[in-house]
Amino acid sequence: MDGRSSQISPTNSPAKRKWEDKITFAEILELPVKRHTGEVYLKQYWKILLVIAIFYSVPSIQFVIVQYMERQSGGDGIYCYYNFKCSQEFLGIAAFNNIISNVGYVLLGMCYLGIVRFLDDSHPPVIDDEESGLLAHRPEDAERIPLCQNEESFTKGLHKDHSLYYCLGWTLFLEGVFSGLYHVCPSRIDFQFDTTFMIIGSVLLFIAIYQKRQPTIIAGPFRVYSLLGGIILLNVVSLVFDRQGSGSIIFWVIVMIVLAWVSLIGSLYLYHFERVSFGRKSLKRAWFHIRHPSRPRDLLRLAAIIFANCVNFSLTIVTAMKGYTDLATQDFPSFILALIVLDDFIYLIYYMIMKYRRGERVQIRAWIFLVSAIAFWGVASYYYDIAITNKFLTPAESKALNRPCVLFEYFDDHDIWHFLSSVGLFFLFLFLRFLDTDLDNYEREKITVF
């Protein structure tokens, strides 16, 4: 490694580099992951995700079974907002078509997991430090544990730990499972079943892009899932405080405070190439950066962060003002999901621009996957915007929105949204997996971090 790359050491973070220097991927990998500074266990991301899914599924299934049994016995259960003009009953389930249409998420999620596993198996075995949960390319590196994969290719290409891609596959699979549970009896009470793994998947999508070149400085899984737990909690609270007068106003004030805190801390850490932390020391660290501003190392990176914050706060203010006016919080699930997805695409566009600025290229198969994802999502969005029910209206008002079947006289517009969006996500995840295959034969000292 040359003299420039050796400037990074355990006490010399990328934030302390001269602004003119470009940080290389080899230098990022040399950053040690010490246990007392918070572990970056990429492998733990998908494992913790499965644990969360198991515990989340138990009360969800219990709730659905209770509602199903009450409806079968003629009890006064919650009202289910079905599309009664296209409701196909099967085994006592009133709208089985809305459930089975989620099979695309499940099957394509499994298919994506299989593809990632197949590609992993085509590489030499990983040397895994089972005790620490981290990866090392040689046993003598156990103290520093750089994120390298194997003896033959640890000097070329990006790192080979694909744990975040497994997360994407599992979120696609789990979205199908929990969306199916929600559609057993769709209502505002169980709406969080349908949105939880959309939100989790959208956040993990951002992290999957970010960890491509900064695997040693991403936030650890416990911090990420803790933050996601807070978002899901707000998602549930939004259903409780809807139309509750001052409670709705207080809710949106809390949302704006939380967003301001996350945006400030996250932006500073992203800008300075430091591992994100939202603990008690984060505000102190943020104040230090504000008091000691440095000349921008990359104006485009700074512009992307500023633009993303402008979009975030603009969308938040517009949604909050609508909430203040209507004394409603029902828009929060759609708002937070739109916010995260917009950030995902802002970062993805920035990432691709930087690839070409650094002389890298996106291979043709990756472009095919991206174009396919955009095409499927474009058509899917059309069907998503067709309102055939509305769980936030009265049953009579929602029933007036019902529409007849449009596919095989069995599936309605929302079912087509399920089919097309699952394929769009599948192609998007494939695009991310193959986005940087052009770097497989690049020396890591020549790959820049952005």
Please describe the topology of this protein.
Layout (H helix, E strand, L loop, with lengths): L24 H6 L11 H31 L23 H5 L2 H19 L6 E2 L4 E2 L27 H20 L8 H20 L10 H20 L5 H26 L9 H11 L7 H28 L5 H26 L6 H21 L10 H5 L13 H22 L16
Antiparallel strand pairs: 1-2
Helix pairs in contact: 2-5, 4-5, 4-14, 5-6, 5-14, 6-7, 6-11, 8-9, 8-10, 10-11, 12-14
What does this 3D model show about the protein?
- The structure is a single chain.
- With 450 residues, this protein is mainly alpha-helical.
- 58% of the residues lie in helices and 1% in strands.
- It is built from 14 helices and two strands, in the order ααααββαααααααααα.
- It has helices at 25-30, 42-72, 96-100, 103-121, 163-182, 191-210, 221-240, 246-271, 281-291, 299-326, 332-357, 364-384, 395-399, 413-434, and strands at residues 128-129, 134-135.
- A two-stranded antiparallel ribbon has the order 1-2.
- Helix 4 (103-121) packs antiparallel against helix 5 and helix 6 runs antiparallel to helix 7.
- The longest helix is centred in the N-terminal third of the chain and has 31 residues, at 42-72.
- It is globular, with a radius of gyration of 23 Å.
- The two termini are 20 Å apart.
- The model is unreliable at 1-20, 32-40 and 124-153 (pLDDT under 50).
